[in-house]
Write a structure and sequence with these properties.
By secondary structure, the protein is mainly β. It has a single domain, classed as Immunoglobulin-like, CATH 2.60.40. The chain is 0% helix and 47% strand. The protein contains no helices and nine strands. The strands form two sheets. Strands 1, 2, 3, 6 and 7 form a five-stranded antiparallel sheet that branches. A hairpin with an 8-residue loop joins β4 and β5. It is globular and about 40 Å long.
Length: 110
């Protein structure tokens, strides 16, 4: 069974016009699925005049004591509220395209 834990946020002001630098971290449990078979993304839908955003998250470390558990992280500069973003898990193959509404996409649900 694949699952995503609650995202952890670290927001610190950068002083740039682009907004604050925010780091999102999420623990992902893939079970028997290899990490290279999925892409973990931070996603925000078009809202309040802002466009859709997709940010690839980087696998940083395996989780100690969890088979198939990994930590993924991404830092972005944004003016959006953090509640606009949700992590998602997308099937990945270098030669495949996956539509946004594809059923196998695993969305984080709070």
């Amino acid at each position: 069974m694949i699952r995503l834990n609650d995202p952890v946020l670290d927001r610190s002001a950068t002083g740039h016009q682009d907004g604050e630098q925010t780091t999102f971290e999420v623990q992902v449990y893939l079970g028997n699925i290899q990490p290279e078979m999925v892409r973990v993304e931070l996603f925000a839908e078009a809202k309040d005049g802002l466009p859709i955003e997709r940010h690839g998250m980087e696998l940083t470390t395996p989780l100690s004591g969890a088979v198939g558990g990994f930590t993924y992280v991404v830092s972005i500069a944004t003016r959006r509220p953090t509640g606009h973003y949700t992590p998602r898990l997308v099937p990945y193959h270098p030669e495949a395209l996956v539509p946004q509404e594809a059923e196998p996409i695993g969305w984080y649900v709070s």
